[in-house]
């Protein structure tokens, strides 16, 4: 399967959010990545339901919603109603992860789990067959524009081995510091989805940058 590109609107111009989402509609992006932060699970606050609903009104591509929040199980249905087609929760925020995954699927969304850089992929061994997407954080979550953590390549290989061993079909998504230099290495290690925020929206030609990421071979 060709790899997917999911630009993160956290790096978009919020004064012209509809324009930037329309640009993504016209680009070769596959998903639109939406980072939701509560200022508690991570040291930053982004946006919630009103902004998600505003994005949904314009977006013509699946909304890939990444919940960097405490107690995500309290809000799953609202995010689904707000347009989320993929909902990812953090392993570190879910003491009853299997139950939360079932809750996400019950409301009709694909279920994802995100892992912070320090969290080993082996902790997903008992639930990997219930997961549609695993997000490996390649920066510490909370802020855009951070430096890529090189240990991510090894985590991808370990996760791919776990997926194959368990007969899972889940995708590996990389979030943080993705650019044209590390993207081929990420894909060759086994990544399926690349999230890119600052690299896309700070470029001279975001549409071309997305196209360049989409056309990477390895």
Automatic annotation (TrEMBL):
Keywords tagged on the record: Carbohydrate metabolism, Cobalt, Isomerase, Manganese, Metal-binding, Zinc
Gene3D superfamilies named in the record: Aldolase class I
InterPro entries: Aldolase_TIM (IPR013785), Ribul_P_3_epim (IPR026019), Ribul_P_3_epim-like (IPR000056), RibuloseP-bd_barrel (IPR011060)
Keyword set includes Zinc: yes
Cofactors: Mn(2+); Co(2+); Fe(2+); Zn(2+)
EC identifiers of the protein: 5.1.3.1
Reaction catalyzed: D-ribulose 5-phosphate = D-xylulose 5-phosphate
Active site: 35, 175
HAMAP family, per database record: RPE
NCBIfam families named in the record: PRK05581.1-4, rpe
Membership in a protein family: Belongs to the ribulose-phosphate 3-epimerase family.
The protein's name: Ribulose-phosphate 3-epimerase
Species for this entry: Rufibacter hautae
